[in-house]
Amino acid sequence: MKFKNLQEENINEVINKANILLEALPYIQHFNRRIIIIKYGGSCMVDEELKNSVIKDVVLLKLVGFKPIIVHGGGKDISSWVGKFGNEPKFINGLRYTDGFTMEVVEMVLNKINKSLVQKVEKLGSKAIGISGKDGGLLKVKKKQMGNEDLGYVGEIVEVNNKILYDLLEKDSLPIVCPVGYDDNYDTYNINADDVALNIAKSLKVNKLTFLTDVEGLAKDLNDKNSIISELSVEEARNLIKENIVGGGMLPKINNCIDAIENGVESVHILDGRLKHSLLLEIFTDQGIGTVLKA
Asked: Lower CB density within 10 Å: C or N end of the chain?
């Protein structure tokens, strides 16, 4: 026989939990059966505890009615493996130079990461399918040009075959996409994971595109955590770029956000993946966390 502990602090704790669930209700209703793209990278891919936390969050989103798609990177693991083979990782303007040998390492490492993420989802009782951009002709690319610099097998997406993603979602699967594509000659190319998430989001015209990063959001002052911008419009984002408030590694992300909104995506979120459950806090609470860009 069990008896309830009815101490006031326990009752208040239970009430607080109930209030949190009630706060989430309108968001669950609004986004039921809608697609969300989650670009998964940075430190939350390296730390095993954070990795498990992110996957639990995504599975929860699926179970309450969302249709999530994960797009993952793997840059740190790729660099590590390139080093293990006795080569030095090479970057040109932030993009990995990918010769034939490096491309083989990239594909090997990304496929390993992809299947490990599938296993984590399946272990939690949800169905996941891991695919690369070569599967089902998902991501067709051309060789990426950067002035006179040769990036090797680095691809720029020219076409997304979104039918395969719709089919997987309709079969109640969670697609997990690794950023590899093919060109007209069926050669394999490495693709920036942010670009993959962006292009899939634009192709599907999703409701939410979310970037899990190693920053807390877009800040007006990098040295002031209290200057994180919680919400801004495309026009406001453009003004921040003109005023040189946005720069460095954040600039391409903000440009991707603007591109997404102008091509039919409802909202784009930049979240700190180092913070446990940042995905749930952003989506299911009124205050949110990180930065959201809207039209």
From this structure: N
